[in-house]
Design goal:
CATH architecture: 2-Layer Sandwich
Strand content: 15-25%
Order of helices and strands: EEHEHHEEHHH
Number of domains: 1
Helix content: 25-40%
CATH superfamily: Ribonuclease H-like superfamily/Ribonuclease H
Mean pLDDT: 95
Number of helices: 6
Distance between the termini: 48 Å
Structural class: alpha/beta
Length: 199
């Protein structure tokens, strides 16, 4: 089972993002403050869970958290500031919306842009170690998936309802045939180097 907290005395918010490696769409991040006594043996890193499990856990997380929020940075901002900064900005936007002020941020990964004066702890593979980060990973992933399924209706040629904007062969083939959409990240390598694309 994942750990309930990093520091028992502090109000901790777990933070994680989804969509960093995608070719299209925004990057989403979530921030979650769980009660210190919260336990859930099913909660895990969202990448280890099935789609069905993630969506079943989402209402449980939302109901049992002290506070939670989701932040979004769109593809135009990603192209402007780069994906790493955009991931941190999405986390900042999520933290901004929390109804309770955290005293410590638990960040999935090895880097983070400090949020105001709030101390933070970067934890590599934190979504597989701490419940609050795992909960944030599930919220970020499911809310982003919801968005990509919605925009897939307008842009059916890219099969986003299946690939969520990730660089699958089918997605890249569609870019090669149809060109880019307004939601593609133009600073990303959309096609392998041997194939050129007219932007």
């Amino acid at each position: 089972m994942l750990k309930s907290y990093f520091d028992k005395k502090l109000i901790e918010a777990g933070c994680d993002e989804a969509g960093r490696g995608c070719l299209a769409g925004p990057v989403y991040a979530a921030s979650v403050i769980l009660p210190k006594n919260y336990k859930n043996k099913w909660l895990d890193d969202s990448k280890k869970l099935s789609d069905k499990d993630r969506y079943e856990l989402r209402p449980e997380i939302e109901e049992k958290t002290i506070t939670w929020a989701v932040g979004v940075v769109d593809n135009l901002e990603i192209d402007e500031i780069n994906i790493l900064k955009a991931s941190f900005l999405a986390m900042h936007r999520a933290i901004d919306q929390l109804k309770q002020k955290p005293e410590l941020l638990l960040i999935d990964g090895n880097r983070f842009t400090p949020y105001k004066k709030t101390p933070h702890q970067c934890i590599i593979k934190g979504d597989a170690k701490f419940l609050s980060i795992a909960a944030a990973s599930i919220l970020a992933k499911t809310y982003r998936d919801d968005y990509m399924k919605e925009v897939a209706i307008k842009h059916p040629q890219y099969f986003w309802e299946q690939n969520m904007g990730y660089p699958t062969k089918k997605h890249r083939d569609a870019i090669r045939i149809h060109g880019t959409s307004p939601l593609h990240r133009l600073t990303f390598q959309l096609l392998p180097k041997q194939l050129s694309l007219d932007l």
